[in-house]
Amino acid sequence: MSREPIYYLNGKYISKSKAKISVNDLGFLRNYSVFEFLRTYNGIPFYLDAHLTRLENSAKTVGIKLPNSQKMLKKIITKLLDLNKQFNEKKIHIIVTGGRAEDSITYQGKPTIVIMIGELIKNPPAIYRQGIKVITEDYNRNNSSAKTTDYFHAIKSLQKAKSKGAEEVIYLNNKEGLVYEGSRSTVFIVKNGKVQSPNHGVLPGITASVVLKLLQKEFTIIKEMVTPKELFDADEIFITATTKEIVPVVQVNNMKVGNGKVGSITKLIMSRFETYTENWSGKEVN
Ligand SMILES: Cc1ncc(COP(=O)(O)O)c(C=O)c1O
Fold this sequence. Notes:
Structural class: alpha+beta
Pfam family, one: Aminotran_4
Bound molecules: pyridoxal-5'-phosphate
Oligomer: single chain
Cofactor: pyridoxal 5'-phosphate
Strand content: 25-35%
Family: Belongs to the class-IV pyridoxal-phosphate-dependent aminotransferase family.
Keywords: Pyridoxal phosphate
CATH class of the largest domain: Alpha Beta
Largest sheet: 9 strands, mixed
GO molecular function: catalytic activity
């Protein structure tokens, strides 16, 4: 049997089964918490600085003070990777909550921090080869620029998606006539060879930012909002996220995207990203 993972919890390195959080924690009681999710390639965290900066911004947005500096968090993560050598490629999940509140509502300024490490599970290869179906939902995330643990709507709508054979939900606002983001991903459309991704009211995706940097010399990039019509008329659509990387979308609701097959530009982008991550040594693109 493989060794239990070692987690970090409020200053201590402890085994997974001993990592316990109070039922009086504001994260549990009120969903008052933010998080980050990143992964390694070749054992090296992918864009750790960017993830830690986003964590700091998310915490600031909701009014939680991070218990550790970015420098300290990097040290802790390096140590955790060392303590969890049993895993091949690792997922790193950082959660910071409002901490304990005996009256169940007052933030005491003593946040809880947990860092969990585990084996990164690969996605089924078919989603990259064949692409996925998505459904749309009329919804906007609260505090959209922050990565909070508020995924109520995602959990609910993903069940609906699964029941329709879809893998992801794209949030749009019909009243505004704007497309925002996936429930757990950034949305891209390709039209006439140009690549476009919504630029406000969304979580700034780290995978998306890397993809855009990799493509900036080769493609015209449009960082502008997308309308539902543009989404439905797109030649190609793909979504990006840390665990999914780049996934082609071949159907939106009941409509085929382009000819219903994975598009050639999406394939090229996937291959550029794959080459970059296969050779990942910590060198960021600028
Ligand atoms: C709402 C939302 N948008 C976008 C993303 C993709 O972000 P990243 O590429 O940093 O994983 C996520 C990831 O979980 C997300 O939850």
